[in-house]
Amino acid sequence: MWLFKKKKKELQSEEKATMSDKVAGKIAGVGIKAQRLFAERMNKLFMKTNYKRLKLILIFFCVSAGGYSIYLIANSVFSAEQKEQSFEIQQMDIPKHFNKTGDETVMPEATVDEQTYVQIQDFRKYMDSLKLNRANEYDSILQARPGLMDSVQVLEQIYLSQKQK
């Protein structure tokens, strides 16, 4: 039974796709038909006119369309009303730290002295012994403080990087 449901779903999706394709095809067909009718009527209208008259009509159309375009451009640039400017130049807001990589936020003055390092080592040994002997206490500590061991590791890395310098 469940096999037939998949086939029904596939058939329904195919039917929806074909319906939308049919509708789109009809809309495109109507648009093309309207264009064809317009072109035929224009051909009939201008077939009766002579060559000189067609040239004059073309020149008149180009001059009037070009003149109107020039008028619109000139009106938008040199209009008397300065309330709404068509073009406004604004200063770009640049973030203060756009050229920073983010490494500057790490504290370069973070230091770990030897006494703290010894305490960190002792704490790590204690946590390792808890992990081996009393795993439930170890897990409860890590649940209460999820980043604890990560912090210990970071402190150890800081100390070791200080020793290398």
Largest sheet: none
> What is the molecular shape?
elongated
Which regions are unreliable across 5 or more consecutive residues at pLDDT < 50?
none
Q: What is the H/E string?
A: HHHHH
Describe, in plain words, how this protein is organized in 3D.
Helices cover 73% and strands 0% of the residues. It is mainly α. The longest helix has 46 residues, at 2-47. The chain is elongated and about 105 Å long. The two termini are 73 Å apart.
Brief rundown of the structure:
The protein is mostly helical and 165 residues long.
Key structural traits:
165 residues, mainly alpha
Write the layout of secondary structure elements.
Elements: H1 2-47, H2 51-77, H3 114-133, H4 135-144, H5 148-164
Helix pairs in contact: 3-4, 3-5
